[in-house]
Design brief:
The chain is mainly α. It has one domain. A hairpin with a 2-residue loop joins β1 and β2. It is flat and about 75 Å long.
Length: 146
């Protein structure tokens, strides 16, 4: 689809102008394609959740028919698909944001690094059946192993 659309744009000018205009037109076409193929994911998820809630309420009040159970299973599988699409979309959005803004050394980033450092830290070693937390003894024992 992208290749066909790209080749269908009649743009004149130097190479940079042609690329810029084709990208601008392709962006619009991709937005239309996305709306036609995927629709609004959040709205779809809300409607599926409402249908599931109605079936669950009906199940609490009475026994569901076999067709309603199958309908519920179908709704659950559609909900899983939508969740995968949302996750993929959010990952792409984060990646695009990272490309645009770069890697900023935020408080979250540094707290995550600190957590990883503490998690990976060696607190001590067991020497001859006894736990030892002295750094010099730890180093000597580690050198013996290696």
């Amino acid at each position: 689809m992208v290749k066909d659309k790209w080749n269908s744009y009649p743009v004149q000018g130097n190479a940079f102008t042609v690329i810029k205009e084709k990208l601008k037109r392709l962006k619009g076409d991709l937005k239309l394609w996305n709306r036609d193929v995927f629709g609004n994911i959040e709205t779809s998820k809300k409607s599926i959740m409402q249908e599931l809630e109605a079936l669950d309420c009906q199940d609490c009040n009475s026994v569901l028919l076999e067709s309603e159970r199958l309908q519920r299973l179908g709704l659950v599988s559609r909900l899983k698909e939508i969740d995968k699409k949302m996750e993929s979309f959010l990952c792409q959005k984060v990646r695009a944001s990272w490309f645009k803004n770069g890697d900023s050394c935020t408080k979250f980033y540094h707290s995550y690094l600190r957590w990883r450092r503490l998690k990976n830290e060696v607190k001590g070693v067991e020497v001859g059946g006894q736990w030892c937390e002295e750094p010099c003894t730890d180093r000597v024992e580690a050198k013996k192993i290696v």
